Amino acid sequence: MAILEILEFGFMQRALISGIAVATICSAIGLFLVLRKHSLFGDAMSHVAFGGLSIGLFLNLYPIWTAYAFTLIAALGITKMTDSIKIPPDSSVAILLSSGLAIGIVLISLSGGYSLDLFSFLFGSILLISTQDTITIVFLSISILSIIAIMYRRLMYITFDDKQARVSGINVKFANYIFIVLAAITVVTSIRLVGVLLISALIVLPNITAILFGKGFKKTAVISVGIAVVSVVLGIIISYLANVAPAGAIVLTSVAIFLCTIVTREIRKSIRSGKITEPNVHNRSH
Amino acid sequence: MLNLTSANPIVEIDHLSYWYDSSFLSLDDISFVMEQADLLGIIGPNGAGKTTLFNCILGILPDYRGTVKLFGKEITKNRKVLLSNVGYVPQHTSIEQSFPANIEEIISFGLLGSLEKFSRSYAKEQVHKVMQIVGLTDKKNKRFNELSGGQQQRVLIAKAMVHNPKLLILDEPTSGIDEDTQDKFYDLIRKLNAEEKISIILSSHDLDAISKLANKVACINRKMHFHGDAKDFFGDENMLKTYYESAMQAHLRLHQFNAKSNPQNVPST
Description:
The complex is a heterodimer.
Chain A: H1 2-8, H2 10-35, H3 41-59, H4 63-85, H5 89-110, H6 116-123, H7 131-160, H8 162-167, H9 172-213, H10 217-242, H11 246-273, H12 279-284
Helix pairs in contact in A: 2-7, 2-9, 2-10, 3-4, 3-5, 3-6, 3-9, 4-9, 6-9, 7-9, 9-10, 9-11, 10-11
Chain B: E1 11-20, E2 24-34, E3 39-43, H1 50-57, E4 65-70, E5 73-74, H2 79-83, E6 86-89, H3 103-108, H4 120-134, H5 149-161, E7 167-171, H6 179-194, E8 199-204, H7 207-213, E9 216-221, E10 223-229, H8 230-234, H9 237-261
Parallel strand pairs in B: 3-8, 3-9, 6-7, 7-8
Antiparallel strand pairs in B: 1-2, 1-4, 4-5, 9-10
């Protein structure tokens, strides 16, 4: 059986373990981002991370660590700026996105063009993940999920209505800063999986699919994590069997799940409204 | 812990003024006192400063001039403790409709601000109790956007009262709700005030509803035009005439402010 054979390879085991960990944190953080209408924040963070990776490669430092540092500083800086001079959220996304990319481009041109390393960060390289990277990803994912579990109800209330949350005595500003830090760490941690260019798909797609039919916040979060994990596992297997890039396969799998959900939902709606007759009901009547 | 005795008035506002951007005077020297078990109707036209007044009472706008006391204590100095005794229902339009939380989850948000640590079973019991009071027990697993406007308002009231507050603040709670639903909603407000002994401040444009509901009225249009018994306000034709004249002035004032601060976005009047 080809699928069982896949699991025998060490690189596949590492890819699946880190993939499941990253899928879980991306969908958990993504649910709050999507509901706050900050879907593109993940995209902006990933472009800042690209700038951070370039700094690491340019200075001959470990690029992932410079990406963490740079992304955290930029995320906290822009949040502070948005708070104090009231920049609209979509404009802050534009500022982050373009500045991160610009820094990356300048440093790449100074160092004489794209290196193989940078290319793997742009498009993801989950099959090349080391045991050390896997341990780091799993450790960070558990830490992020634990903090979300502690703050979950407060974050949910702030997302529902931040003014009411403030009136209830919740420290909205502090909670938002913690959330931004978690979002920044999530994005940089996930870059190895789907790359800078496709990370926002993993943050957004499982959540908008889950929101379509989740009854309750908790259920929506669980469905979203389920969809993200299925997308990553199927995507990795498909990429191995069809010999295509894993990041693309993962994102296309979650796009397929999203489209199937919409089609199924519309068909069920039409059946309920009587526009389509349910086949088995029709057959039984004869 | 503050001693919130019944000897203190619920709300005391003394010479309260508030400026937006140091240029637009939204509240000008407002003073009034609200006693326990009062149902105070705040009336005034759009732009009169009703929501600004609530934001000052709730400590959301702390940079006011004057004094705002809740339960005898200054709000800015004891905000967390005082607000744990207040339930707040915002204007209907500020809620995100696609939010996937179910009714039970939304109502339980109200317990987050409480200073008491509830056990999970007590919290659940409390949520079910308020769902019963507002008549939503059969809707507990529904999503917020699956309910009608009136039912959504009842959810927000249940959330505001789940931690047993002594004061409920309702900011234009019936805007965008049909007349039949409004009547049911007002019945609920009466019940909360009479049976649950909750003091209530309610702002509305609906003078008819305020005349039937409130025992006290505060009519504001930047300044305080009237504060006293509802029957005195509604029984005086001159008061009502002044109210409608000041409504027109407020509309013009708001239009001028918008024109000054954002010339591209001036509504045509």
